[in-house]
Design brief:
The radius of gyration is 13 Å and the shape is globular. The chain has helices at residues 25-36, 58-69, 87-102, 115-123, and strands at residues 3-9, 14-22, 43-52, 79-83, 108-112. Helix 1 (25-36) runs parallel beside helix 2 (58-69) and helix 2 (58-69) crosses helix 3 (87-102). It has one domain (3-10, 29-123). By secondary structure, the protein is of the alpha/beta class. Helix 1 links the parallel strand 2 (14-22) and strand 3. It starts with a strand and ends with a helix.
Length: 127
Amino acid sequence: MGDIKTTRFPKKGITVRTVRGIVSSEEIEKWISVQYAKPATPHLIWDMRKASVEKIHSRNIKDIFDHTQQFAEKRLGGKTALIVGDEAARGLSKLYTTHHELNGSDNEHRIFGDLNNALKWISEDNK
């Protein structure tokens, strides 16, 4: 079972969710529900570098995507950075971002390998 630490920077409109340990798709869906029970910031960083996605399969990614759609209007025009530490997490993250692209998401999603580049991207003005 994984754990998650949430750090909010409301003045910058950013929430950072740092995930550690072995995580399942059910845990991620639960964390998403908890996140949106509170006022959402427009920008979100999922830092998964210290997480293991060994319990998540490609078929689970559509379920996670579908789960997020019920909250999509709370972050219209926001950015989501997925920071990953290994190829398995990168591949699953790419599947997730592809679902957003194919479904015309109003939020932009990108995958990164480090926090600095993710913060730089999120902090850029929307053009």
